[in-house]
Design a protein that fits this description.
This protein is an all-alpha fold. It folds into 2 domains: 5-270, ABC transporter involved in vitamin B12 uptake, BtuC (Orthogonal Bundle), CATH 1.10.3470.10; 277-366, Orthogonal Bundle (Arc Repressor Mutant, subunit A), CATH 1.10.10. Helices cover 75% and strands 2% of the residues. The chain has 15 helices and 2 strands. It has helices at residues 5-30, 36-55, 60-84, 89-112, 135-154, 156-164, 166-171, 176-194, 199-217, 221-243, 251-269, 275-304, 314-319, 323-334, 349-366, and strands at 338-341, 344-347. Helix 3 runs antiparallel to helix 4 (89-112), helix 8 (176-194) packs across helix 9 (199-217) and helix 12 crosses helix 14. The model is unreliable at 308-315 (pLDDT under 50). It holds the Pfam family ABC-3. The chain crosses the membrane at residues 6-27, 39-57, 63-84, 91-111, 139-156, 176-209, 221-242, 248-270. It is a multi-pass membrane protein.
């Protein structure tokens, strides 16, 4: 199966797409511009149509050049609208997205009336047609990916600063507006790379999903960006391989499903940020709180009865014998903090010291 020419092209294209999408999508997510990929991908459609009209054929270089041009214009429009008008980012993205996609649909309709036989399959750019990827297309995609990665490495510190503290970057004399434009145009490059693989409609998920998954595993940008690229490449290869196992399975949607699976697993299992991790942490905190409450209660009861080293378990045994309290008592007994005497629970020496420390901490916080 791996010796198949078409599969080789699809896998290599998916690797390139995953790498550039993961790296550049991380910066878009950190800048709270998750809809930017959606906007630029829809803005690429009129560029594809203009490239076809100018070239008169489905030559990939012309189509990508047109997509990059309109994507760059859309990116510049978003930056200008958010900086020089009272529109917020989401409003600017929505305006540019809808206008660009409407223009693309109009151009597609115009092309259909041109009676040009080469227009066949042009609609595939809406949802991608990975099987049509050629080695010449891969060379173009590899060149765009290499250019984007080189720019990220060369401007790493500047991009990092404008993502987390653009005000400080501006105070340091950095050309923040120019850097934002460059970064936004680079995201347009990622969209151009993914047009053939996943199409205009699904490219938004490919830009954001790997970054969202990687963000759950690490709070450091130096770890998050490579991890996002790894998730993107793994999803691309997985979708390409799964599409070969059945007839009629589209590669682009399968890639998006795979990367969405990575997001779901990350949201559930990522340490310190995953939902299951947080649920387990809250369970441990509640268990610890119940144990502390019972320890301090026994400590106070021992003090009231004049037994500084022994807890009076009579009230606990008679009134507080519900199942939850029994579980807490057993947990404390396993830790050696309480013991049973004449069918009544009382503090051990270790439990007395632990309860005293807890009360001292509570009194310190109160003061």
């Amino acid at each position: 199966m791996l010796g198949d020419y078409t599969l080789q092209n699809v896998v290599m294209g998916a690797l390139l797409l995953g790498a550039i999408s993961g790296v550049l999508g991380s910066f878009a997510m950190l800048r709270r511009q998750s809809l930017l990929g959606d906007t630029l991908s829809h803005a690429a459609l009129p560029g594809v149509c203009l490239g076809f009209i100018m070239a008169g054929s489905r030559e990939m270089g012309s189509l990508m050049a047109g997509a990059l041009g309109t994507g760059a214009v859309a990116a510049l429009m978003v930056v200008l609208l958010t900086r020089y008008s009272r529109l917020k980012t989401d409003a600017a993205l929505g305006i540019v997205l809808s206008t660009s996609f409407a223009l693309g649909v109009v151009l597609l309709t115009f092309i259909q009336g041109m009676n040009n036989a080469a227009q066949g399959g042009l609609n595939a750019f809406l949802f991608g047609q990975a099987a049509a990827t050629l080695r010449s297309d891969l060379l173009l995609m590899a060149g765009i990916t290499a250019l984007a990665l080189i720019l990220v490495l060369g401007l790493w510190k500047e991009f990092k600063l404008i993502c987390f503290d653009p005000g400080f970057a501006r105070a340091q004399g950095l050309p923040v507006l120019l850097l934002e434009v460059v970064l936004t145009v680079m995201i347009a490059l990622a969209v151009v790379v993914g047009l053939q693989m996943v199409g205009v409609v699904l490219m938004a998920a490919m830009v954001i999903a790997p970054a969202v998954a990687a963000r759950q595993w690490s709070p450091r940008l130096e770890v998050m960006v490579p991890l996002a690229a790894l998730f993107g490449m793994a999803a691309g290869v997985s979708g390409a391989l799964i599409s070969t196992l059945g007839r009629g399975l589209a590669t682009g949607p399968l890639i998006i499903i795979c990367v969405s699976g990575f997001v779901l697993v990350s949201l559930l299992l990522a340490p310190r940020r995953g939902l299951l991790w947080e649920a387990a942490f809250r369970l441990r905190q509640r268990r610890r709180l119940r144990q502390q409450q019972l320890l301090t209660r026994l400590y106070r009861q021992a003090s009231w009865h004049g037994e500084p080293r022994r807890g009076s378990g009579r009230k606990l045994a008679d009134d507080d014998c519900d199942p939850r309290t029994r579980r807490v008592v057993r947990q404390l007994e396993q830790r050696g903090l309480v013991g049973c005497h004449d069918r009544h629970w009382m503090l051990t020496a270790e439990g007395h010291e632990a309860a005293a420390r807890i009360l001292a901490q509570l009194e310190g916080r109160a003061t």
